[in-house]
Amino acid sequence: QVRLVESGGGLVQPGGSLRLSCAASGIASRDTTMGWYRQSPGKQRELIASITGHSGTVYAAAVRGRFAITRDNAAKTVYLQMNNLTPEDSAVYYCNVLGRTTWGQGTQVTVSS
């Protein structure tokens, strides 16, 4: 049974940084592509970054150059380093296996002065 627990969110000022973590269990293959998603109030959940088992990455245009997704297969953890945050980045952030439709609780990121 797949279980994903996101952490690391919080309140940060514009221009600040946060590092999100996603502890994963129950995923059989290290080749599984993982993604970070976010959802703001009134908007659909969107995929913002993904990483393959061999650490190939893809980013949405809105975060490219500011966010970095990495993974530690030994620790079964996926990370999202977020830099130069803006208020538009405020959302609940989720990690998931790409294509999976069951979601964890996510972690709230609020960017505000």
Descriptive notes:
This protein is an all-beta fold and 113 residues long. 0% of the residues lie in helices and 49% in strands. It has no helices and ten strands. The strands form two sheets. The protein has a six-stranded mixed β-sheet, with no helix packed on it. A four-stranded antiparallel β-sheet has the order 1-3-8-7, with no helix packed on it. β7 and β8 form a beta hairpin. It is globular. The mean pLDDT is 94.
Brief account:
0% of the residues lie in helices and 49% in strands. With 113 residues, it is mostly beta strands. The N and C termini lie far apart (40 Å).
What is the averaged pLDDT score?
A: 94
Main beta sheet: strand number and arrangement? Answer: 6 strands, mixed
Instruction: Compute the CA-based radius of gyration.
Output: 13 Å
What order do the helices and strands follow? EEEEEEEEEE
Number of helices: 0
Poorly predicted parts: none
Distance between the termini: 40 Å
Helix content range: under 10%
Strand content: over 45%
Shape: globular
Widest sheet, order of strands: 2-10-9-4-5-6
Overall strand count: 10
Query: What structural class do helix, strand and pairing data support?
Result: mainly beta
